[in-house]
Amino acid sequence: EVQLVESGGGLVQPGGSLRLSCAASGFTFGSYVMNWVRQAPGKGPEWIASINSGGTTTHHAASVKGRFTISRDNAKNTLYLQMNSLKTADTAVYYCATDPNGLTRGQGTQVTVSS
User: Fold this and answer.
1) Given this model, what pLDDT does residue 14 score?
2) Cβ-based neighbour number of residue 102 at 10 Å
């Protein structure tokens, strides 16, 4: 059974930083492309970043490019999202997922950007 457990969210001021983590189990993590997806209140899921199985190729949505960085540690079965220069528009629940639509995802971690 696929299990994804996100952590690291919280309340941060605009311009601040957070690092999200996602602990994966129940599948061969190192063989999968992994994604971060977020969902703001009243909106549908938004794909924001993906990384290939080896961690050598990444893609980021235009809305976060240059501010967020996806990475992974296959030895630890963990996915990361470093978020810098946070904006109020980044407020959402953040999920790690095995697909870009977020159909297979964890319970999420809340990120709130507010002064």
Assistant:
1) 98
2) 21
